[in-house]
Amino acid sequence: MAWAPPGDASSARRAQVLPDGTLKVDGRRVHLYGIYIPPTGKFCNTKIRPSSCGSRAAVALDFKIQGFVYCDQKARYTDGSVSALCQIKDGGGLNDRVDLSAYLLSRGWAVALPTAPFEYHTLERIARHRGLGVWGFQADSISR
């Protein structure tokens, strides 16, 4: 599957975020390039209708992408899924794009794979130092 470069407006693809944080784009499962999304238990965003449930990374992705992504395939797996660098347009400028892997890493909802770019490992370290996402503590229910 060859996708056009992220800057090409015609390459925007409809994406569905799956509960495990992977994407379904053009009927294929897409793993975000360079990251592993650890299981965080089921979380539901009830502020939207219908409510969205999945891992915390999936809920964060669903909120961020609003349905459309630009992907550049990096690898294909034997099960038919692919690894891709996926971005979204965020703003009106030509270069206003957000790397979804970097987005999850910076919020602590993903871990950089050993083969990931140096920048990804840096984002993971910053999130870990700040105690974000999986590096922080769970405070979903507070009892008195």
Can you characterise this structure?
By secondary structure, the protein is α+β, with helices and mostly antiparallel strands. It has a single domain (9-128), classed as Beta Barrel (OB fold (Dihydrolipoamide Acetyltransferase, E2P)), CATH 2.40.50.90. It is 21% helix and 30% strand. The chain contains three helices and ten strands, in the order ββββββαβββαβα. It has helices at 56-65, 100-106, 118-130, and strands spanning 13-17, 23-25, 28-32, 35-36, 43-45, 52-54, 68-76, 82-89, 97-99, 111-112. The strands form three sheets. The protein has a five-stranded mixed barrel with strand order 1-2-3-8-7. The chain has a two-stranded antiparallel ribbon with strand order 4-10. Strand 1 and strand 2 (23-25) form a beta hairpin. Helix 2 (100-106) packs parallel to helix 3 (118-130). The longest helix is centred in the C-terminal third of the chain and has 13 residues, at 118-130. It is globular. Mean pLDDT is 81; it is low at 1-10 and 140-144.
